[in-house]
Amino acid sequence: FNAAAKEVAVEALTSQGFIVEVSDLYAMNFKATATAEDITGADMPFHYAEETKLAWQQGKLSADITEEQRKLTEAELVIFQFPIYWFSAPAILKGWFDRVLTEGFAFTPEKRYSQGIFQDKKAILSFTTGSQESMFGINGINGDVYVAIWPIQYGTLHYCGFQVLAPQISWDPAHTSQEARGNMLEAWRKRLLSWKKHHFPLLPLTALPFN
Hints:
Layout: H1 2-14, H2 48-58, H3 63-74, E1 77-83, H4 91-100, E2 122-128, H5 145-148, H6 150-157, E3 163-164, E4 168-170, H7 178-193
Parallel strand pairs: 1-2, 2-3, 2-4
Helix pairs in contact: 1-7
């Protein structure tokens, strides 16, 4: 279903004249762990955050990181499509955050949140759940889904300055009918056809939109 949602996004955006680049992390065999291999000619011991900042300045980050940073630099809208794993993103996507959003490129102590480097860019989390919507409500057994994604939306994306739009949540597609799955994909398509008109910006935690 996540693959289908990705295809819907590509189709909806390209139909409007946008250039779409897809990073299929699994197909790319993207390395999830942040190690010394991320820096060309790195010596041990080293401090990852400081060394990657310096490597970014000197053009010594590994090719897979620099390619993803190029895509981010050129992007107007970034969509993260994934299934929720253990109330968070899959490890490979977490590794993308860890490795690609290096200090200097994505943030500095002076450029964070509303003053962040990516304040001219928008981001959307589009994800699937393994439980029904009622289980992710404020009083649901799984707890509020917006609390679960707060670290990604606010602590990662908005930290880097992104204007974080309301998430697109596809509730439990593995256990719903084909018709229901089709309706989810159609809702996603319609939203993307008018995303510039309806931004749904990120709101304070206690007032996050549910629609």
